[in-house]
Amino acid sequence: MHVGAAKLELELEFRGAGAPAAAQRLLQAAAPAENEPQAGSGPRPSARAESVLRWLTTAVLYAAFLGLGMNAGILGPTFQDLATNVNRNISGLSLIFVGRASGVLCGSMIGGILFEYMNHVLLLGVSMLTTTVGLYLIPFCKTAVLLIVVISVFGVAFGILDTGANVLILALWGDKGAPHMQALHFSFALGAFLAPLLAKLALGTTLSTENHTEPDLHPPALNQSPEANPGPLFAAPDDLNLLWAYASVGMYIFVVSVFLFALFFKTQSKHENPTASAQVSRRAKYHKALLCLLFMFFFFYVGAEITYGSYIFSFATTHVGMEESEAAGLNSIFWGTFAACRGLAIFFATCLQPGTMIVLSNIGSLVSSLFLVLFNKSPLCLWIATSVYGASMATTFPSGISWLEQYTSISGKSAAFFVIGACLGDMVIPAVIGILQGHYPDLPVVLYTCLGSAIFTTILFPVMYKLATLPLDHSGKKTERMRTAKLCFPALK
């Protein structure tokens, strides 16, 4: 205000009389002073808006992965109820897991292509909306074939979201994305942990872990031929608690999809860029070889993780002689330490490099699996080594993605490629181990698999590191990460 008054006085005093040079200079100095921002006023409003939008997008991705984990975890506790709903027994509906895994695999491949040409946020929103529809349809499916088809279709949406969220986190944060990548995958583990609790609340006393091991629980269903009495394809489930279990997860995922669509429309209408921190990316000299090695790394890592988590219960009861309640606790301690260490890894990632975390994880999994093999009859060793093994496996996948991003660009197709490796490991290794365990019931085949996988990944990582640190191939072309930013927020310049 004082600057404006001084300017007005000078204009009145010197207008028409020929202002001296000093007054003219004062006028010129006063004018820009009016518009000069105050020192120390903080970052530009646009920079603040970009930062807020970046954090908001990240938070929505966390929420999406929480829903993804709930989506993955809700199937197991409700499996018996779904089998009853379609008049099948457990073994007759086992293809449901193959269908879902196949859908995730196809979704990863499709997503890797679509992310090269479509807005990432929009595609993730559509995927979440598709998942919502699938979750609402599942309790209404009255035939096994229809149920498998529906789960396979929304498995595609699962795969698209799994691939896209990883790519988008890297696009948002670049080399600073390691803690956010750990938080993203912790959200998935938390969702998978919460899903059985949610199912128990919805299903009440009808949920029983013993139901999963009794194939003759519903004898009429074994003798009923779907062809003889086809009935309707869609109908309300007899047990409405099953509907509420899936509807509650579906409603949460729908809310997250609304936020994703809101982010898409906001970035289309306003010139705000949450990916402003993206740096000039790199392309390793052996980029494709690195992707192939990471494909193999994730194939064996995820295969061992799922194999141990799936078979430790039966191994503990048949090979070690544990009671079912103890074996269930052993299974819980594995996934509990897995989820807890993923949460702690968010903080570790702020002070440790992704490569360091991978080395520590490899050492932990190697030592614990070795002790499991050497002392496979000891219940005490089984408890301790299982805890260490679960903790060691927790951070490997997100750390692997963050580590690769330090040395070479990760596009949608690149992310899809190593996610496919993880999906194949999830499908192939547990199936093969199940067959081998049946042929050699007296051998701890599960433990041998975990040890072999740990040895392989421990040897493979130094090879990957050597390839990654060879001289980089810099190019003048626009980088993949900058292209990703354009696809995420095309209205931005």
TrEMBL record:
Pfam family of the protein (one): MFS_1
Entry's Gene Ontology molecular function annotations: symporter activity
Gene3D superfamilies documented for this protein: MFS general substrate transporter like domains (1.20.1250.20)
GO terms of biological process kind: sodium ion transport
InterPro entries in UniProt: MFS (IPR011701), MFS_trans_sf (IPR036259)
Membrane topology classification: Multi-pass membrane protein
GO cellular component: apical plasma membrane
Subcellular location: Apical cell membrane
Key words, A-Z: Cell membrane, Ion transport, Membrane, Sodium, Sodium transport, Sugar transport, Symport, Transmembrane, Transmembrane helix, Transport
Segments traversing the membrane: 52-70, 90-114, 121-138, 144-171, 183-203, 243-265, 289-313, 359-376, 382-404, 416-440, 446-468
Its biological purpose: May function as a sodium-dependent glucose transporter. Potential channels for urea in the inner medulla of kidney.
Family the UniProt entry places it in: Belongs to the major facilitator superfamily.
Name the UniProt record assigns to this protein: Sodium-dependent glucose transporter 1B-like
